[in-house]
Amino acid sequence: MVIDPDTLVSYVIGTLSPDEERQVEAWLRDHPEEERRLLEEQEALASMALQLPPAPVTPPSFQDVLSHVKAKEPVPFTPKPNRSRLVPALAFAAVVAGLLVIGVPLTPPYQEWRVQQNIARYANLPGAVSRPLMSAKGESMGMLVRLANGQVFASLKKRPADGRVYQAWEIKGGVPASLGVFGDRSFLSAATVAEGSTFGVTLEQPGGSDRPTSAPVAVTTL
């Protein structure tokens, strides 16, 4: 199977077969940069879908209700077809295809249900181990999933404060090593993180820092 921009768009909008989806996901695991970019495009689709108006419902007539009540049957409500839904969906698919081709990442707002789907997607991979991310006060800050290949996927409950970014760290023997920065809630490491080390997240200035400049906002031991 050839993984091209059209295939990735089909994956985002959910038109691939289960076998094709598995092939795309295997390819994405071998291409973490593309996987991170695709996460943004999936969230863009989720954002657009949640902003669509609900489909209008055609109420049954009084006689229909009466006949179903007498027959002790549930009263059916038939949604009206909403052709306007198809237009933005197709337009979005075209935009995603164009951005994938020219390499421009999308930065849509995160939607909570999509975040949870992404966590579940990684947590359900073979060999994945999930751990809660906690603050120094013992508050739940999010979830970390360590994949079988050693990469980690982190999802925090809140976005960083305005003008700041999150920076992920692997801490071994008390020495922190940067895993990268991220400006939203989710992060997938390009590097592997050793079992037994500590994973932490700090708030930093845009671009990150060579060393943590603040106390960790979230931490866990692998």
UniProtKB/TrEMBL annotation:
Q: Which UniProt keywords apply?
A: Cell membrane, Membrane, Transmembrane, Transmembrane helix
> Could you give one GO CC term from the UniProt record?
plasma membrane
Quote any Pfam family the record assigns: RskA_C
Q: Where in the cell is it found?
A: Cell membrane; Membrane
Q: Which domain of life is it from?
A: Bacteria
**Swiss-Prot/TrEMBL GO biological process terms:** regulation of translation
Q: Does the keyword Transmembrane helix apply?
A: yes
Indicate how the chain sits in the lipid bilayer: Single-pass membrane protein
By its UniProt entry, which InterPro entries does this protein fall under?
Anti-sigma-K/W_factor, Anti_sigma_zinc_sf, RskA_C
GO MF term list: sigma factor antagonist activity
Please state every residue range assigned to the domain named Anti-sigma K factor RskA C-terminal: 91-217
Regions that span the bilayer: 86-106
- The yes or no answer to whether the keyword Transmembrane helix is present is yes
This protein's major location comes to membrane
Name of the protein in its database record: Regulator of SigK
Q: Which organism is it from?
A: Deinococcus yavapaiensis KR-236
